[in-house]
Amino acid sequence: MWRVLKSVIVAALVAVPLTASVGAGEPGCVDWGKAASIIAQNGLLPASTVYQMVQQRTGGKVVSQALCKQGNRYVYKLVVLGPTGEVTNLVVDAATGQS
User: Fold this and answer.
1) What's the CA gap between 25 and 42, in Å, rounded?
2) pLDDT tens digit string along 29-47?
3) Domain-located, residue 69
4) Domain total in the chain
5) Using CA atoms, how far apart are residues 42 and 78, in angstroms rounded to an integer?
6) What residues make up the domain containing 77?
7) 79 neighbors 62 (Cβ within 8 angstroms)
């Protein structure tokens, strides 16, 4: 049990620097204070819906997220901590939920 818990703690600590790279400071990404209006105006999936979809698909947990404009579409850039401690960066279309 301690071995599994230790792996999760180490993975979480490793994820911290990765999560800093996903956010509103990244080119094309929006501040979360403005995200709700962008989501509503563009008919995008709510972030909570996308997180649930990703977590069900991966078995992991979303630990960081950003809403970003890529070309003519919006995407969610996500960092997911997997069930065994692996860290994955995902880009999910904000309109369709497809990655």
Assistant:
1) 21
2) 999 889 999 999 999 999 9
3) yes
4) 1
5) 20
6) 2-93
7) yes
In a domain, 98, yes or no: no
Q: How far apart are the C-alpha atoms of 88 and 18, rounded to whole Å?
A: 9
Scan for tokens 């818990």, then name that residue: 5
Q: Which residue has the tokens 């404009």?
A: 69
Whether residue 31 lies inside any domain: the answer is yes
Q: What is the pLDDT along the chain (99 residues), one digit of tens a residue?
A: 545 444 544 444 444 444 444 555 677 899 988 999 999 999 999 999 999 999 999 999 999 999 999 999 999 999 999 999 999 999 999 999 998
Q: How far apart are CA 31 and CA 20, in angstroms?
A: 14
Closest CA to 35 of 90, 77, 71: 77
Residues for the chain: how many in total? 99
Q: Using only the alpha carbons of the chain, give its radius of gyration.
A: 14
Q: Is 14 a member of any domain? A: yes
